[in-house]
Amino acid sequence: MPKKKHHPSALNEKPGISAPEIVSAVAVGHIQQIRKIQPSAKELVEGILNENITALSRAITLVESTNINHLAKANEVINACLPYANKSVRIGITGVPGVGKSTFIEAFGKYLTGLGKKVAVLAVDPSSTISHGSILGDKTRMEELVKDKNAFIRPSASGETLGGVARKTRETITLCEAAGFDTIIIETVGVGQSETAVHSMVDFFLLLKISGAGDELQGIKRGIMEMADAIIINKADGDNIKRANLAKLEFNRALHLFPAKKSGWTPTTAACSAITHEGISDVWETIQKFLELTKGNNYFFEKRKEQNQYWMLETINEQLKTNFYNNPEIQKSLESTKKAVQNDEISPFAAAQKLLEKYFKK
Question: Of the four, 24, 58, 169, 187, which is 20 to 30 A from 93 by CA?
């Protein structure tokens, strides 16, 4: 069994570097001025098609912007990239915190780049409902993959609503495909609605599990198990190999309780170790078999058409919500209506109806 080389972790604190005594104020000002210059939509598209990572990153930032003034430019970039998209395999990966998603994705990504693939990792990172901040630590965790010239890692904060970031992630896929990435991996935290959103934008949905944590019984529940095309028991190394293989058998039995998938594919279970890389190649082999089957029976292409339609409707819902809260008349009435609801002067449902009627009359 091959042993993984130990490298100093990027999570460790390292000594800082002292700033030079003399810094050119002119040079600093020049750099700041260059950074303030916003490239046009045409320049961004040209950069993306030339596989320029800086242009791709700036375009994604534009797409993720909540500034209403950026919307037209973002749509122009996306529409220009559409003819060059849809040439990748999209893989969704989820699992509870601590299951080893980042370690697995790094090992899997390095395996794929070793095969000559270009891999983009889009991570949906949950935002705190208290501080509204996100760690966005995926690049730190994947310190080997981030240095790979054939890999691109982009974490995004979910913000206050998952729908918005999910829609932006869907558009980011288009930009990454236009930039030449043929394998798109979308990682989600695995604790809620994000799984449903990510499932609606990928071709293959992978569920990571660990043994010895009650997962065997939890996994029998419906929901995420029904969405999974494969269940991988991670951390199958050292003293945990026996428990991982036992968990694999339990999940395999559980999968047979669910109805057959429209794709004609029978979900599989396997064990792997992201540390030793044991079983990583088998995961890609499983995905290849899935693609061969679903492209052969045309399910792959029909599913993508359905996903496009789904995201059109989701975008309408999101835009209606944005327009509602940005409406001047609604903004004037919202605070007073909130207070009326808090003081039990009007029911929440009647208050909502009143505001909606005002919006639609306007």
Answer: 58
CB 148 within 8 A of CB 110: yes
- The arrangement of strands across the sheet holding 204-209 comes to 151-157, 119-125, 183-187, 89-94, 204-209, 230-233, 268-271
Give the Cα separation of 359 and 238 in Å (integer): 62
Confidence of residue 132 (pLDDT cuts 50, 70, 90): very low
Q: Summarize pLDDT for 21-72 with one digit per residue, the tens.
A: 666 777 777 776 766 678 889 999 999 999 999 999 999 999 888 777 888 8
E strand residue ranges, 191-284: 204-209, 230-233, 268-271
Residue 122 · residue 176 · CB < 8 Å: yes
> CA-to-CA distance for 208 and 99, rounded, in angstroms?
7
Q: Is 42 exposed, middle or buried (0-12, 13-18, 19+ CB in 10 A)?
A: exposed
Angle between helices 162-178 and 299-326 (to 10 degrees): 130
Three-class DSSP category at 321: helix
> What distances in angstroms separate CA 162 from CA 65, 172, 262, one per listed residue?
15, 15, 27
Our CA angle for 16, 19, 25, nearest 5°, is 145
Phi, psi of 251 (to 5 degrees): -70, -35
Is it the case that residue 301 has pLDDT exceeding 90?
Answer: yes
**Distance from first CA to last CA of the chain, Å, rounded?**
69
Q: What is the pLDDT of residue 79?
A: 93
Which amino acid is it at 242?
K
Structure tokens at 230: 């494969």
- What residue type is 92 in one-letter code? G
E-state strands within the chain: 89-94, 119-125, 151-157, 183-187, 204-209, 230-233, 268-271
Q: How confident is the model at residue 345 (pLDDT cuts 50, 70, 90)?
A: very high
In the predicted model, is pLDDT for residue 168 greater than 80? Answer: yes
Which conformational region is residue 132 in: left (phi greater than 0), alpha (psi within -120 to 50 degrees), or beta? Answer: left
